[in-house]
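Below is how a single chain appears once it has passed through the pipeline. First comes the sequence as given, then the structure the pipeline wrote out for it. We keep one example in the README because the format questions we get most often are answered faster by looking than by reading.
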Amino acid sequence: MGYAIGVDVGGTFTDVVLSGTSGAISVAKCLSTHYDPIAGIVSGVTRVLGDRDPAQVTRVVHATTLATNAVLERKGARVAFVTTRGFRAAVPLGRYARVEEDRYDLRFTPPPPRSRRATASKWSSASRPGVPY
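Resulting structure:
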């Protein structure tokens, strides 16, 4: 059994965790590199591996909030919010769960207008395309 590596690329930091068969872990936190996200990943993986053999890595799990942050901050291309029927209000409702110090933010950016939110009555997967909701 080999090592597992978990990578989370965030808006500010890239976190990397290496887990071995004994249960011991190594953790690295590096600055995220927006111009080239792989650079932050390579830096973190290099740090957690240390002198371990990279060929012994049998699993890599990756997560990121870069796309979510770009949508929420309205950076990049215009996008629409498409969700399963019944969840059209998920973004506006989420804005109500703001932390206390943001409650009176006069520069609050409202969620995308209703015209840029749509629903889908079906979802698809490779094994079950077009399954009704």
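The mean pLDDT is 79.

See the next section for the split statistics.
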